[in-house]
Design brief:
Two copies of one chain form a homodimer. The first copy, chain A, contains nine helices and 14 strands. Chain A is an alpha/beta fold. Chain A folds into two domains: 2-124 and 317-330, Rossmann fold, CATH 3.40.50.720; 128-311, 2-Layer Sandwich (Dihydrodipicolinate Reductase, domain 2). In chain A, a hairpin with a 2-residue loop joins strand 3 and strand 4. The radius of gyration of chain A is 20 Å and the shape is globular. At the A-B interface, strand 9, helix 5, helix 6, strand 10 and strand 11 of A face strand 9, helix 5, helix 6, strand 10 and strand 11 of B.
Chain lengths: 335, 335
């Protein structure tokens, strides 16, 4: 199979290469693509060096599968071009997620909707994916009425320059110096910034709208009540989320643990009294969505609170995209 | 006036000295007290050196006001001793907060309840104080039905050793080394730890119960619905909180801003579209509760979301305690 990765030099793109390799995805030829700026760079795939090519129309000739992670503008431009040539595109940007004809897929939740794909499939936002992998099994049992998610999102979601900014900012502040941020609107080291993406006229951020709208689409619950505050924290890798969910029928913490212990993609790390709960530092590099601190919600009789942690570059991006490709393979839509 | 500070060498104790000095509280004699371990240490107050004395029964002789911040065990022991000698104790620990005879005071919210004091007055938990300074003016207008608070709490709430642990842990990780935490159950640098205090058998933390129970007591709303997740983040000073509040009558973000612009103790920093919102790094060292990101709650028709930031050592602890003492002065209960 001929597989292209657009945005191959970015944090998510590199992770896509490594996930394809680790999971033995049947890649016969790998075509790393990027903007003109990155063309010519060398990347390793399965121990062989590949040269990054500039994305252009002919780059998709004969390509079976393309994983995109080069930002919304590139996806808007190139996904239709690739799809028209018969390439199946799994797009990690937000460009196509809310388009009616584009399935928005978390394999553990709505993998069956892949049958509706017409060439472009959208990979949801990182923060949304991990919330739904944890909430969906509970929803199937007790029907979700509403949820409130507050996120603690790592800087790797922003890209390579953000990793450097956190590192440099931390060193500057620790040595008593000052620091002028370039990537974020405020210094991120030793701080918490309640802005991810731009704000609409009501002051709601793009990332907050993604949680609201993508959750509704993926769960097929257009009227689901979703409250959300998305916050960037000085963590390199791994997003954490404090979620409170209210269900139509009551669901005990014990029963929720039982369900999540056997839920696909979930790693239950939940024995708070013995000090067992997940954190971002431990979850970084892993594939699972780690769930802990499951407890009754002190604020509602049919509510549960949980703490959900995942590697945003893996399950939040590259891994979910490759899992979508694997599902296409096993259903015969990709061969 | 003879003023004692118990726990004078701790982070909050030192801040108490500095707040007393900055606000020109009428201190004629300052008596810094601590455990035997810290006795003999020297502290500066109004440019003069004072020697820390070990706390003992006679230390409260003739003392008009004692500010306590030496932990719950010390408060349990010494507050009744001091009160019996006629000293008014303002206690920053959690020891007396829920005691029926002890007023739990945020001056901007329930200062009038100081008239009921019988010698011991409790200073609420840091995270609770800042939430209520922001919510109370809105509650007076539209009647609070429930709120959900997720906290981003700085390490200074834990004490001096936690500041060192964050600093050392950050340097270790940045230089590629590993780090064995002593103060926290996990490394705090570049992480987020969903544990503050110990967990009860249901897996709810002490800090979460403080938000629930103290809010109900201070607002005089014993049935208020409160959901809470409290999280430690790698910030040196200043707590941030993502709050969603539901009111009985609907309250627009515009009206909420109008109310909070003139509310006591509040600094409105709210123009998200222009990049104006508060963060911990900016709030550190300031007296106000900074409120921003006021917006409609996407999850409920009568809800508002807000982002609330304050210096946990000042308004969250030392400043609130001194403001209580000032209120006692102006009402003639302390002279």
């Amino acid at each position: 199979m001929k597989v292209a990765v657009l945005g191959a030099t970015g944090l998510v793109g590199r992770e896509m290469l490594s996930v394809l390799e680790q999971r033995n995805f049947p890649v016969e030829e790998l075509i790393p693509l990027a903007s003109a700026k990155s063309a010519g760079k060398k990347l390793l795939f399965k121990g062989r060096e590949c040269t990054v090519r500039e994305v252009e129309k002919t780059a998709f000739d004969g390509v079976d599968l393309a994983l995109f992670s080069a930002g919304s503008a590139a996806s808007e431009n190139w996904a239709p071009v690739a799809a028209e040539k018969g390439t199946i595109v799994v797009d990690n940007s937000s460009a196509w997620r809310m388009a009616q004809d584009v399935p928005l897929i978390v394999p553990e939740v709505n993998g069956h909707e892949l049958s509706k794909q017409k060439g472009i499939i959208a990979n949801p936002n990182c923060a949304t994916i991990q919330a739904l992998v944890a909430l969906f099994p509970l929803h199937r049992e007790a029907e979700l009425e509403s949820f409130n998610a507050v996120t603690f999102q790592s800087v790797s979601g922003t890209g390579i320059r953000a990793l450097e900014e956190l590192r440099e900012g931390a060193l500057a502040l620790l040595s008593g110096g000052s620091f002028e941020p370039k990537v974020y609107p405020r210094p991120i080291a030793f701080n918490a910034i309640p802005q991810i993406g731009s704000f609409d006229s009501e002051g709601i951020s793009q990332e907050e709208w993604k949680m609201v709208n993508e959750s509704r689409k993926i769960l097929g619950l257009p009227d689901l009540s979703v409250s959300c505050t998305t916050v960037r924290v000085p963590v390199f890798r791994g997003h954490s989320e404090a979620i409170t969910a209210v269900f139509r029928t009551s669901l005990s913490p014990e029963r929720a643990r039982e369900i999540l212990r056997n839920a696909p993609g979930v790693n239950l790390v939940d024995d708070a009294v013995s000090g067992r709960f997940p954190t971002a530092l431990e979850a970084a590099g892993s594939d699972a969505v780690h769930v802990g601190r499951i407890r009754r919600d002190t604020g509602s009789s049919r509510g549960l609170a949980l703490w959900v942690v995942a590697d945003n570059l893996r399950k939040g991006a590259a891994l979910n995209a490759v899992q979508i490709a694997e599902a296409l393979l096993s259903s015969g839509q990709l061969k």
